[in-house]
Every structure is written in structure tokens, then in C-alpha cells.
Amino acid sequence: MFDADIPDKDIDQAINAVTEKYKEESFSFQVEHVGGGYQFLTKPAYQASIGILLKQQSKKRLSNSALETLSIIAYKQPVTKSQIEQIRGVNCDYTTQKLLEKELIEILGKADSIGRPLLYGTSAKFMEYFGINDISDLPTPKDFSSEDNTIGEEKIEE
Questions:
Q1: pLDDT in tens, 61-89
Q2: Rounded to whole angstroms, how far apart are CA atoms 84 and 37?
């Protein structure tokens, strides 16, 4: 390998050229910006056909408890298991272990508190799985709030 100083604009132009090329209908895949990098992914129109052809099963969906635990870790990271359990109100040993096995979370270190519990955070595979490039791409609580229902309220005009 060699060290070459390639200007960022040249890299961006090359990526854009490849992305545009694979947008053509003659290709069954496209270039997507995911997880802080680029990947060739199957176009949605071809996904079912290719899945059947390769006899692959689609990703198993995460259970509600796994999604709850994962969302707590994503928004509160770094977080200890006891903090997760305090928020959820139930034991999360099994769920945390399954998320570690799926490599959606990782151990970030140990807390400085009594007992030095493990600290958990999301992994690069988490970013890839959910199609985001940075943890800041997660929706904020305000994205979930709905406007108050004002039906039946009297408007006071001045």
C-alpha cells in the first residue's frame, strides 16, 4: 500500500460517479452511505428475488424487549446494566447478552462506581443495522411528540 494525498473533492467525485452509475435500472444493487462508509446494497425491487435465489432468510426482527433495551443503550450510552434495569423496571441480563451476541452493542469499559460495573454502548454494526451514520442521526424525543388536540377549545381573540 502507498501513501497518497488524494484531495477530498476527487474522492467525492469518484463516489458520486459510482453512485450515479449504479442507479441505472440494469443493476440490481446500488451504493448507499451507511455506518460512516459506503456499501453496495440490493435495490428494494430486487431484494425478494435475490433472497429466494440465494435461499437466504431475511434478518430476524428484534423482540420488543430487545428494542427497548437497545434504545436505552443508544440514547443513554455509556450505560450500566443496572441503569438499564432501573429504566425498564425488569431484569435485562438475557436481552443484553443477546444484543452482545448479535454485535449490536459492545462493552465500552467499566464505570468508576462501586463494583466497577460494565458500561455498554452501541456498535458499528448497530449503525449499519439501522442505516445511520452517526448516533446523532437518531430521532430526538421532539420527533415523537404530537401536537396537543385543541378540538373544542375556545379561541380568545384580542
A1: 788 999 999 999 999 999 999 999 999 99
A2: 30
Q: Is the pLDDT of residue 110 over 90?
A: yes
CA distance 97 to 4: 43
Domain over 64-137 is classified CATH 3.90.550.10: no
CA distance 135 to 25: 33
Q: ω into residue 117 within 30 of 0, thus cis?
A: no
Task: Evaluate whether 23 touches 30 at the Cβ level (below 8 Å).
Answer: yes
Domain boundaries, the chain: 8-53, 64-137
- Burial profile 93-131: b = 16 or more Cβ within 10 angstroms, e = fewer: eebbebbeebebbbeeeebeeeeeeebbbbbeebbbbee
Amino acid at position 42, single letter: T
Residue 40 sits at φ, ψ, to 5 deg, of -85, 120
Claim: this prediction has a pTM higher than 0.85: no
Number of H helices, E strands in the chain: 7, 5
| Structural fold of domain 8-53 | Arc Repressor Mutant, subunit A (1.10.10)
